[in-house]
Amino acid sequence: MDTQQISGPSRPPSRTREDATLYSGVVHNNSRHHSRFTVVGNHLTQHRELSLTAIGLAAHIQSLPAGAGIGIKDLTARFPESEGRIAAALRELEAHGYLRRTRTRLADGRIVTRTVSCNQPAGRRPADTRPGRDRPPHPQRKARPPAPGRPRRETEADVTRPLGSAARTLPTSRREPTPRRDRAPHGRSTPLLVPRPAFPAASLLRTAADLLSGLHHKDPRLLLSAQDVDVLAPGVAAWLEREVGPAAVEHALTSELPPERLLRPAGLLAHRLTARLPPPPPFRPPADAPPRPLPPQNCEGCDRAFRAAESGECPDCRTDSSHPTVRQP
Question: Which of 75, 247, 298, 307 is in the most buried spot, having the most CB atoms within 10 Å?
Answer without folding.
Answer: 75
